[in-house]
Hints:
By secondary structure, the chain is an alpha+beta fold. The termini are far apart.
Amino acid sequence: MYISYNWLKDFVKLTAKIKPEEIASSLTKHTVEVEGLVNQAEQFAKVVVGKVLEVTKHPNADRLRLTVVDVKKEKLNIVCGAPNVAVGQFVPVALVGAILSNGLEIKASEIRGEKSNGMICAEDELGLGKNHEGIIVLKDGAKIGEPFAKYLELDDIVLEVDNKSLSNRPDLWSHYGLARELSAIFGLTLKPLSKLLGKFEFLSTKESKLEVKVEDKESCSRYLAVKIDNLKITESPAWLKKRLLAVGQRPINNIVDLTNYVMLEVGQPLHAFSADKIKKIIVRPARKNEVIETLDEKERVLNEDDLVITDGQSPLAIAGVMGGKNSEINLNSSSLILESANFKATAIRKTSQKLSLRSESSMRFEKSLDPSLTLVGLTRFLTLLKEVCPDFKIASALIDINNANQKVLVIPLDLAWLTAKIGQGISREQVVNYLEKLGFEIAETKEMILQVTVPSWRATKDISTREDLVEEVLRLYGYDNIVSKLPVQTLNLPELNQERQLERKIKNILAFKYNLTEAYSYSFISEDQLKKLNIDFLAYLKLANPLNDNQTLIRQSLVPGLVATVRANQQRSEDLGFFEIGNIFWASPGNLKKETNAGSVLPHQEKHLGLAITGDDDLFSRLKGLVSNLLQTIISYELEIEFLPLEIIPGWADNKRAAKIMVFGKEVGYLGLLSQLAGENYNLKKQIALAEINFSFLVNLILNNPRPRFQEASKYPALTRDLAFVVDAKIMYNDLKADLLKFNSLIKAVEIFDVYSGDKLASGQKSLAFHLSYQSEEKTLTAAEVDAIQTELVNHLMKKFEAKLRDF
């Protein structure tokens, strides 16, 4: 968008101290991005006024003329093809080195054998219009050699504003809107809009011969129209053309130019229909495949989503986008119907995009214009029309169909909150001053809370919350004036995730201490995998949409994945070791499960730790030791890990080499050797020992089990006795040990030091030898006291376990 510096001065007093460069810089810092400044005189550099002295026929071309043109400093020979060139004319001459608006650089040349040192210019060549039928002929008395820009009085500076930065500011699509911003930025007095508007008398409704009907009230929230007679369509006055040319608009005639002028000045698009054959206006949706020829002489095919202005039958214009050729103002028009309307932004945007037709009007309507601007635009047009065409007459009532639901928006602004938001204080007086300069109204309120009424031109799209008001205050205060500093904030350490820490610790121990390799297995397995391992797959959850036939179930154990990993790597090394930490999934009775609205099952998940080692020695004992050492390390204090017989042995395990893992008296997992049958089914060449621990349960057990308290060592010495018993081989060491500890409170420790089964014992018997430690907290025990307890203990064991003292 182009903004004229001279036009801005109509509304705010820009002194010589406020230079255009400063305006551009300030607008960029506070409001919108100004991409550049253009001095009008620069576009006519090396274009001067000349006088035609001679015109002769070109000897080698019928349509060309040889001219001699006086440009004061010299007389130039110029070949000219314009039919209207004549002796005595004052004309614009582009000298050698000039660059025209179309990018053509003028050079000394030879045309059909004749030298030419310049160009006599037509309208289109200088960017002053589209006419190329002949050269521009200037008024008599023009000064020969005068710069053409000076002759046209083009002394303006044009600011080029980036359209993208105006997307949420419909109020800035006009000179008056930007003048309002400058008044706030520089503290200048803004000329009231009321002083731009005259007062007019309209006919009564009974006298009016104009009828208007709006059928689509949603797409057209407000529609104003008035009929004007006794018009004379002529060329626009110089001041009007000068203003339009400055901002890149091509002058057409006094009426069309006025509608464009008002749009550029106050931001309200207008449209003038030739009223010779129009008796009524109907605003309605277009009919399917309805056709209109627009002012650019192209036929446009419309549909029901487009809004049109019609005369009751045929479309006169595409609402908010472009007028129709059939209602164009021309030299024969003597009356017009002036339209000033407000259209729905999204409707105009869709139509404009669909038709690939964007106009100055559509660009403004797309931004959600203020409905109250319609009356301002119409009145401003009539005010200027009185100057351009003083004999006009208003020939109708003022039709105003208002369906706009404009509510007054009041936003409370807490100044203490504003200070906290910005990070530094701005005085109440400054805040009020900034907002009032921008058109906001401040009601009398408490000292720290302002009741801010948003002006109508900012309430359509831009301002809706108190955060928007902060932006208004802050951009005028100046972002550069905000002191950069880090916020003062107390940072707390994140909550310690003990489960994650324990998981990392286990991984480090297994990887670096025991040289095991971490494995990652799919959570999906097949029925065939489970059959090979003799695992019942009926309780496994099936996938509704499996990736393939080998991944139809979700796992309930890490064992199948670890066995598959060993098989894939058995050729790589003699001794393999793997571990995996991952989730398993349950949906059997007694386990937590949920159902979604779609009826699918959300299974209960548990995190497990799986281990797998291979080798030729006693794998089962190796794995027991590894598990025992691992658990002892992560629990970090003295604890006895127990391995007890399994009530239900997993299908994959050897019946004689399987045990459950006990910690704090709770079962946390199991381990065992892979059975020979399972190994053969999997075509394994190595024996495998496997363990699986419920990691989630283990973590809760460790975190919830109170740590043992260290006690002061007893003052009294302990007495140690050794006992060796012969018992049935089926009796477990743990059962015997537990009974020994419970027998008497003076027995503080029981430690096995020998297990024997050999020729000296009968078949099915074994010998277990223990160190028993006796100690009292109250006195020193005598040998007689300990011997008495020991005798009772032997008798107890003989009765309960049929134990006999070993006599060899």
